[in-house]
Amino acid sequence: MRTMRAVCAMCCILIAAQKAYCGRLHVVPMPKQAKSLKHDAPMHGAVIVLGSEATTQDRIGAEQINRRLTDLGGQPLPVVAAEKTSASGTQILLGTPRSNAALDAALRSRKIKVTATNPGPQGYVVDFLFRPDATQILLAGSDNQGALYACSTFRMLLEGRGDEVTAIAARIRDWPDFRHRMCGRKDRVWGRLSMLNRETDDSARVRSWIEEYVEANKRVVDWCLQNKINWISLRSGVATYVEEWNAFGREALRQVADYGRERGVYFEAAATSSIDVGQWTGPDRPEWADEIVHTHGVGYCWSREDEIRKRARLLGEFARDIGASMYYLHAPDTSKGGYELWDERCSLCKARYADHERAKADARVMNLFAEEIRKAAPQCKICAVLVPYGASLDRMAPAEAKKVVAYWREANSRLAKGIYICVREKQRPNMKAFHQAYAGRPVYFYNNPITSRGWMPLMATSPRFAKTGFFGRPNDMYFLGVQAEDERTWRALVNNYGWNVSAPGAAWQRPFVYNPIVDTSGPRQVTHGVLRDICRNVYGPKIGPLVAEAETKMVAWNFLADPVAISNRMQDRLGVRRARAPGGQEAIRWEVASIPLLLEVCRDGSLAAAKLLEKAWNMAAEGEVSLTDEAQQQLESVYSYALACRTLSSAMYAEAAAGTAAAEGNLDRCRMLAAAGLASIDRHQAAVCALLHEIGERRFFWDARHVAERTEERREPLERLLELGSGSVVEDVDTPENLATSLVVFDDTAPGLRFRSSGNGDVGLTTEITRRGSAAGIEFTRPDHAWDGCSFSFDPMDISEWVKRKGHLRLYVNSAGPVGYQEMTFWMKLQRQDGTDARWKWVSIHRNMTREHEGFIIIDGIPATWQLLDIPLEQLCAEPDVLLTGFHINFCRVPPHGVVLDDIYITGDQPTVQEKIAVGG
Predict the structure, then answer these.
(1) What does the pLDDT read at residue 702?
(2) Position 638 pLDDT exceeds 70
(3) Nearest-CA neighbor of 386 among 350, 422, 416, 414?
(4) pLDDT at res. 82
(5) Cα–Cα distance measured from residue 558 to residue 917, given in angstroms and rounded to the nearest whole number
(6) How far apart are CA 795 and CA 775, in angstroms?
(7) What is the pLDDT of residues 359-407, one digit of tens each?
(8) Mean pLDDT across the stretch 674-684?
(9) How many CB atoms lie within 10 A of CB 275?
(10) How many DSSP H helices and E strands does the chain contain?
């Protein structure tokens, strides 16, 4: 009973403290212990007091405070030594107990314990002591970094009130859960590095580019320090092709890394492919390169250790030259042919390593890379990404799960001490099993809970799942792998839950699904708590809440680019169950119903967000509020993003809803929606272009040309829908005479007909959705991505005479609705007369495909339903004497419906005709 009362009392204290915190304080990341005090401290007349042993970090902290005061319209404070200050007025005592004796004395007088272990590494204390004649503000760190973080927190307590800057008084004690917190970087001046690497002479132009790059990224480092982010990943190919980096590019990166190291912000060199043995594009390709495993354009081998060391030395030299503090080494990343292509390894590897010795081989390669990199860059930590790096044991058969755990344990026993091991986000039991298998080894928690496809939303609340990967080991590393357009708000939100995994809103990782409604609009502890505090710190108390609310209303731009992929993850939210039925008709009906609904949510959210941001924009433009240059640029980016989403989502909703209306026979509604969609394109696109013209020379992702191109893509289908509203449409069709003399390739009565569906798409017969009802079709019930494995085959059919007579392959393509577009790649399966395989070119149907592909026949601009494709056989098949044995679809993406291929046949060289076809006919 006594224990229960104590627990209840503690809960009451925490609730009360949280209420006090939320009412007055806006510190992010949210501190472990925080209490708002009644009094505030005006900064007029205050001084910053450093100790006689002041460190570089103490001086940087003082500089950061003065920058914030200036941003708020105040004056920078004098920075004085402790022995030169008076006992009256407002004193900001800054540093550690070791670097500042006056701070140490003040801490002791208040009985505030600050040691190297309490609060601990990176930990800090902020406290205010009010006396009649003096005010002391204590900013104390357990170490130098903690002192810097005390200053970062104090910056967030400063508020501009008219002509005065005041500090909100608080008592804070804080420390991180993950001591290593990393975010990826979107580099707005990345082009400068590309140009630097093409230069050969040290010129004034090169020096100016280096200076521009360094100064821009110093601001990135400062922002990371202010928000307690202490690692930045240099991704985007930086560490993949290290041979291409000359001395100028390396110098630019090194200057930024040196600047960051003084501030406790470190850099990681990383690439998706690292532990390769070669990336050959020219005549220097060795003969043995054809024998080894290849994926993602690079070669891998477990046995050619001289080549492994040679490659590792290049990486080590690169890490040394740019000042990287970690190298992220990725094993071959593919599931084809077994883990890491292990089953396809070369004969040398098979002779050296038995089938069951993959862990031994992987650990050996990683150890070699680590050894060589550390020779050149001893300061460099190493992260190993071994497959499987996703702890999905609950989705495996028991035997497979047992095999994976055994691999983890053996790899752990063989990897060199101190090498980090990478794991992707999964549910808690799976993460626990991974940590147990790699016991004693630091873990690199690569948390990417947004979506497996790496889409970048404006904002999502899924960083709250960070605690799923935290096991009380502070030296583990926390990395969130998805970048967002509003990158600074996103980074701060991510870091909030890396620093404090139990901050309000924290939750366990749920079964993997990205829900674009839930993950942007809740829970309220995130959207109306942490997110608002972040935006308040960036934009101030007037604009910040407007931006925060806007960010909770916008769905990812990429959802608009491919709505089917996300809609297939939205079943529970929509209350619709996707039934499996023969032919997949239930699935198609589900998608037809859900996509307009999701697009309507996206449209309404974007409209509301644009309205909120327009208000914020006008407040800044009219001088009602004052923004820093960086806050102004960030607002420009977010506002242009909102207008772009509003523009495209309005058009796409009109297209989807009008298409559904036409399919239901409601042509009046179809015509009305299509007309409204076309009007919205003109109105909204003009607003985007006007804003971006006002912004001027600064370029963002949402530039006018990009928005115009993406929106214009929607004009043609809307115009076609407007035409469909008249009740009929003109289409190319084959004549009855041609059909009567054609060779039918696919028919539901074809002898030996067989289906295979090993990919992400399903293939099957359908008789409900056909062009003319004369033959069966092929339908994909999961059409977002269907890779390698959707096909049908039949007994060999001799087409030699048709090839010699210059016949044509003809087929109808339909996206299971009145209007859509196709992206699909297919090929026919051929045999020579002697039974050996023969192949013809791939046929690639793409919307707005502009570039040629060797070995492909590109069919571009398929705009709508029931397109008749006509392809001369002489373009497809170079060999005349062949047998046709099947049809294979390698890739298919056809939002928002499945695809049906109907009436596949070979005919002579006769022309087609045009007919006016009734809608739904």
Answers:
(1) 52
(2) yes
(3) 422
(4) 80
(5) 35
(6) 18
(7) 999 999 999 999 999 999 999 999 999 988 887 888 888 999 999 999 9
(8) 87
(9) 25
(10) 28, 33
Q: With beta carbons less than 8 A apart as the criterion, state whether 128 and 176 touch.
A: no
Percent of the chain clearing pLDDT 90 (strictly above): 42
- Over residues 5-15, the pLDDT tens digits come to 443 443 443 34
Beta strands 231-234 and 842-846 are: unpaired
H, E, C per residue of 868-921 = EEEEEHHHHCCCCCEEEEEEEEEEEECCCCCCEEEEEEEECCCCCEEEEEECCC
Tokens found for residue 683? 């109105």
Identify whether the C-beta of residue 840 lies closer than 8 Å to the C-beta of residue 917.
Answer: no
How far is residue 6's CA from residue 767's CA, in Å, rounded to a whole number? 69
Q: Where are the beta strands (DSSP E) in 770-876?
A: 777-779, 790-798, 808-814, 823-832, 837-839, 842-846, 856-860, 867-872
The single-letter code of the amino acid at 429 is: P
Q: Say whether pLDDT at 277 is over 70.
A: yes
By CB atoms closer than 10 A (0-12, 13-18, 19+), residue 161 is exposed
Burial class (CB in 10 A: 0-12, 13-18, 19+), 356: exposed
- Give how far Cα 62 sits from Cα of 68, 69, 152, Å: 10, 11, 10
Residue 192's SS3 state is helix
The radius of gyration of the chain's CA atoms, rounded to the nearest angstrom, is: 31
Nearest to 302 by CA among 337, 352, 336, 339: 352
Residue 339 tokens read as 């883990």
CB contact at 8 A, 572 and 552: no
CA distance 387 to 370: 18
- Assess contact for 221 and 228: CB atoms under 8 A: no
pLDDT in tens, 101-135: 999 999 999 999 999 999 999 999 999 999 888 99
**Cβ contacts of 448 within 8 Å, gap of 6 or more:** 424, 425, 454, 480, 481, 482
Among the residue ranges 530-534, 625-629, 682-686, 728-732, the one predicted with the least confidence is 728-732
What is the distance between the alpha carbons of residues 18 and 502, in angstroms, rounded to a whole number?
A: 13
Per-residue HEC secondary structure of 625-665 comes to CCCCHHHHHHHHHHHHHHHHHHHHHHHHHHHHHHHHHHHCC
Which residues are CB-neighbours of 703 under 8 A, at least 6 positions away?
Answer: 692
- Residues with Cβ within 8 Å of 308's Cβ and at least 6 positions away in sequence, in order, are 275, 277, 301, 365, 368, 369
Task: Check: CB of residue 424 under 8 Å from CB of residue 386.
Answer: no
pLDDT of residue 464: 92
Q: Is the pLDDT of residue 415 over 80?
A: yes
Helix (H) or strand (E) holding 723: helix 715-724
Q: Decide if 99 contacts 53 (C-beta within 8 A).
A: yes
Q: Which of 481-490, 581-590, 693-702 has the lowest mean pLDDT?
A: 581-590
Say if residue 848's pLDDT is above 50.
Answer: no
Q: What is the pLDDT of residues 875-910, one digit of tens each?
A: 888 888 999 988 887 766 554 445 677 778 899 988
Contact partners, residue 350, CB within 8 Å, separation at least 6 = none
The CA-atom distances, in angstroms, between 489 and each of 61, 323, 480, 545 are 22, 27, 13, 13
CA 674, CA 652: separation in Å to the nearest integer? 10
Widest CA span of the chain, in angstroms?
105
**Strand 124-130 with 47-50, pairing:** unpaired
| Ordered alpha helix ranges (H), 465-576 | 487-499, 518-521, 524-525, 531-539, 544-551, 557-561, 563-567, 571-574
More confident residue, 804 or 842: 804
Return d(Cα 151, Cα 128) in angstroms, integer.
Answer: 13
Residues 6+ apart with CB under 8 A from 34: 17, 21, 25, 27, 170, 171, 172, 173, 174
**30-34, 44-48, 67-71, 717-721: which range is least confident on average?**
717-721
Give me the residue label for tokens 């209840």.
Answer: 8
